Amino acid sequence: MTTSPTELQPDTGRDETRMRSVLRRAVLAARSPIPVQLLGRTLLRAALVGVAAGLIGSIFFFGVEVVQKFVLERLCGYVPLRAEGERITGEVGLTPFRWWLVWLMPALGALGAGLLSRSAPETRGGGADAIIEAFHSRRGYVRRRVPLLKALASILTLGFGGSGGREGPTMQMGGAIGSIIGQYLRVTDRERRILLVAGLAAGMAAVFRTPLGAALLAVEVLHRDDFETEALVPSVLASVVAYSVFVSIFGESTLFAHAAKYPFYPVHLPLYALLAVVVSLVASAFLTILRGVQSATKRIPIADWAKPAVGGLVLGVAAVPIVMIVGPQLGHEGMGLGILGGGYGAAQVAITGASWFPGGWRGVELLSLLGCAKIIATSLTVGSGGSAGDFGPSLVIGGIFGGAFGRTAQLLLHDPRIDPGAFALVGMGTLYGGLAHVPIASLVMVCELAGSYDLLVPLMLATGISFIALRHRSLYHAQRPSWRESPAHHDEFVNDVLRDIRVGDVLVKDRPFVVFARATPAVEVIHRVAAGGWQDVFPVLSEDKNVVGVITTEILRTVMQEPEISAFAIADDLMVPPIVVGEGEDVNAALEILLLHGARELVVVDDEGRIVGFLDEAEITRLYREATHGASPSTPKAS
């Protein structure tokens, strides 16, 4: 039985339709990067980091409070000042003040923390420096023992009266959790660093309760002059999750009580500018004393793990007389003044005052005394290697001196519009923002603490002044001036080097290559490609010899798996949009095109669209290697 051509036509049409569909899928697969999947993975990992950091931050926060209540309050009769948002457990009844225990407790806590640090020396000190250094120099790696040991060491140090904050330790614990999750998930170095930054933000957000400010701090604190912009979105998400975990356990509240509103008066801006200068001087003095204690501690001829106990002993000896002299005058024999522990209660007094707090110049004198005492106490604890943060005390010191400045202005100018609490809050952000080089994060944090953006303009002015005034002083040794000085961004620096090299100076010329016309049959394309040697990308030319598309090896593999396709297809069906670069472009732009398309080779064209040569990944790799080793890029030899 014979079959007419008319009867064969429908089958032929179906084959051609099927062939076109296969080619279309192959072309789309070759064209499409999948950023949504990468974004989804990053955000899910950041959420996981936020949950873990929120939980460990909550446990740590509770642990410090419980140990402090038992050791300092119940056992020693010490009555610490507390910020409004620190009250998470019931009050302890009045206990006789046992001064002979108070002077010893900071040393005992620091000694226990020092013993723990023998297994992880990186847990000594505030914690922020260690996690910043891990980001820059250790490819984001943190040992798995760090979160637990840091939590226990800091609970002992702070719960027994060490002068420091909870936030520095939680920054290190959160960053360590991000790193550890990245290690378990076997992510790249870059992704692990991002998760470390997200964990840093999450730890801060959980304890300090300023989720946006914490996310900004995490991306700002790593460099003096740059931001870690790639980590911003993961940091925001991790902060939100960690904050949500914390408030689900302890309830939603800001750390400090504050006025309902802080009206803005432009006439007060010169006062805020003067405040910034005063606070910058205080910050410089604080850093000088802190560095002095660190230098003196290094010279003590005992083991490093035991040195924090020496600082704790000196702290106890220095703090007890102040408490014994000033406390009874304020209402209770053992009343603490924020010298031991975080000291947020002293900052709370600077913001809102207290029933026992004296007015007039006596109030200014008391705040000035507390500020100086807190500088010395924090320097003794953190400077000797105690496991306590420097973030919290920096805010407290700024708040105390800001409150003293506001009361002074109020007394001198007799202006009822001056609110000392506003100056205390601005002083907080000004000191830490300038000393840690995080002006944006600090002003956002203070606005979150105040519950409004009423103080945004004074904060912008004051933090800007302190940022300039403290330009060459930094709270953190591990901070890098910019990403150019960071090993974490070495590749980006090399990319900058590649931007100075033109494609036309390094492309491979005078090498025979294969091109196709648009109508070239697929069978011929396959045979000629198989007979070729070095090409991975095959240009398709128009009648006027311009590149209109390229055929990649990925598409050819698809065609070869479907033999019947080659009977119908032509080069025009196989090609994708041209993967080309102009000879006047820089090599970094060429590298970006290669990465975008997942190609190994680029066609190089002149200004008229004519092929002048090829640039392959091997050549870019050679340039990369020469850039990293400081050699001058050389022109490749034709082969």
Protein architecture, described:
There is one protein chain. By secondary structure, the chain is mainly α. It has two domains: 37-485, Clc chloride channel (Orthogonal Bundle); 492-628, CBS-domain (Roll), CATH 3.10.580. Helices cover 60% and strands 4% of the residues. The protein contains 25 helices and six strands. The chain has helices spanning 5-31, 35-75, 99-102, 105-117, 128-137, 146-159, 167-185, 189-208, 211-220, 232-250, 269-298, 307-326, 344-352, 360-383, 391-413, 420-435, 439-450, 456-469, 490-499, 503-506, 522-531, 553-561, 571-574, 587-597, 617-628; strands at residues 516-517, 537-541, 547-552, 580-582, 601-605, 611-616. The strands form two sheets. A three-stranded mixed beta sheet has the order 1-2-3. A three-stranded mixed beta sheet has the order 4-5-6. Helix 9 runs antiparallel to helix 10 and helix 12 (307-326) runs antiparallel to helix 14 (360-383). The longest helix has 41 residues, at 35-75.
